[in-house]
Structure formats: structure tokens, C-alpha cells
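Support request, priority: normal
Reporter: lab tech (M.K.)
Component: structure prediction queue

Hi team, I submitted a job for 5-hydroxytryptamine receptor 3A from Ataeniobius toweri yesterday, and the status page still shows it as pending. I've pasted the exact input below so you can check whether something in the sequence is tripping the parser. The sequence length should be 310 residues. Please let me know if I need to resubmit or if it's stuck on your end.
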Amino acid sequence: MRLSSGWTILLYLLLHGGATVCTVKKLGSNPGRFANATLVRLAEFLSAGYKKGVRPVKDWRTSTIVAIDLMVYSILNVDEKNQVLTTYVWYRQSWTDEFLVWNPEDFDEVKQLSMPTANVWVPDILINEFVDVGKSPDIPYVYVTHEGLVQNYKPIQVVTACTLNIYNFPFDVQKCSLTFQSWLHTIDDINITLMRSPEKLRDDKSVFMNQGEWELLHILSNYKIFSVDNDDYYAEMKFHVVIRRRPLFYTVNLLLPSIFLMVMDIVGFYLPPDSGERVSFKITLLLGYSVFLIIVSDTLPATAIGTPLI
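Reply from support: The job had stalled in the queue. We restarted it manually and it finished. Here are the results:
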């Protein structure tokens, strides 16, 4: 009887322990809510061993080609006094990451995935004419295709220095430059190209808001390779934003009053010299010219090369 009871207890422990082990193994192999999440499996596959601080090429002699594109959304401000241009642009850049490649057949035919920008390598392409930090929304994701193409699209408020030619004010046309280049990498590491043809870039006004003071004429592009010390060569892409001022506001508020003052000045010569009204009339016109000069001088820069025609 005692032996039977001992065998019974031993059999119970073996069965209970085996069931516990099976339960643990079953729970350990079940990923829970991520059981059938293809995007989670793909994200883990791409992030395994990925080094975002290293340029994503298998052969270090291969240069990473970054294709960029620019679309002007709005001309926010043109500060003639301080020679500063503030624009809101849609900036796009794409490059090939050789370490972010997968076979779509292994991941339910997923051919595109959004990943956090902080987890992938991003080229250090900046605008040389930056004079202030713009208020731009933070876009925390980039799109990655199964071939390794990374697409980084974001809007930027650009505050840049621009040499303004105000000789023909208010009938002036300005051309401001936005120069994109890698701040550190030479052309052997990072090269820059256009995402679209220069002809399509030049005439694209599809997203431009055409209700402000300035009108967008076209955007010109120019690729250049330069060297600072004749040793290391860098690639840069320069966009020339050509804008034209709408002169209606200044015509009504500046030119028409000025023409009226000139006409009244000519009429003043027909007043009799012996009348006492001629001197006071001329003094009033001189006061009007002084106010006109103060208004124009507050608008135009003090360090302009040459004198405005107005």
C-alpha cells in the first residue's frame, strides 16, 4: 500500500511537471498580439545588426548618390531692409541603402515600409544660405522600398540670405539661391543629383500659393563641383528661385501720390508771384516730398548698391 502510494505521488509529479514544461514552451513560442504582424517581422529583420552611423554601402569605394527635389509652396516674406528671404518649400531627397533590402515574397508581398528617421542613415545635406532656424514640422518617418530606396520628404521653412537688387523697385525681379551640399562628405562619399529633369523643375508651379505680393516665375538648377583646398572635392546643387513683385500696392500708395505732387509742383509756377500763397504752397509740397522720402527709405535697404530709380 505504501509502495502504491509512493508510485502514485511520483507519477503525479511527473505528469504535473511535464504539463508545466509544455505550458512554458507553448507560452514562450507564442508572440502574443504580434503573432501575424508582417510589418513587425520585417522591421525586426531590417533593424537586426543595422548601423545607422555607417554609410550604407557594401563597397566603401561606391559613392552614395542622393537625388533631391525642391518645390516652392509660398513666399512668406522678402525683407529688403535686411536682405533676407523667407520661403516655405517642399524638399524631397532619396538615396539607396544597400542594407535595407528584402525579398517581398518572404513578407507577404510587402514592398514598402515606413521607418523612423532616427533609425536609418540620413545624409548631412544642408542649405548654405541659412541665416536663421525656420519653423518646420517634424516628420519622424521615411519610406523604404524593398530595393533599398529611402524616400525622405519634408516641408521646410527656409530663412536665407539673399542679395536683392532694388534698382527697379517696385517693378523688380529678384533671384535668390538655395545651395544644397553635404557639409562633411566629399564627392567620393556623397554625390548629389536632381530627382527630376531641369525642364520639369523650372516650370513646376503646381503647389505654389499665388495670392501674395510675390509671383514665382521659375526655378533654375545648377550642379557644381568645387574644392576649398584643391584636395577634397564637394558636390553642390544650387536652386535659383526667380520671383517678381506685384507692383499694384506700391503704385497706388507711392507712385500715384508722387505723380500728384509733381503735377501740383508744376501748377504752383502759375500762381502770381506777388500773392502770399505761392510760398506756403511750395513749402507744403516740400513737406509732402519729405514724407514720401521717409516712407521709401524705411522700405529699401540702406546698404543697397546704387540708388533706386524711384
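DSSP finds five helices and eleven strands in the chain. The CA atoms of residues 34 and 40 lie 7 Å apart. Let us know if anything else looks off. Ticket resolved.
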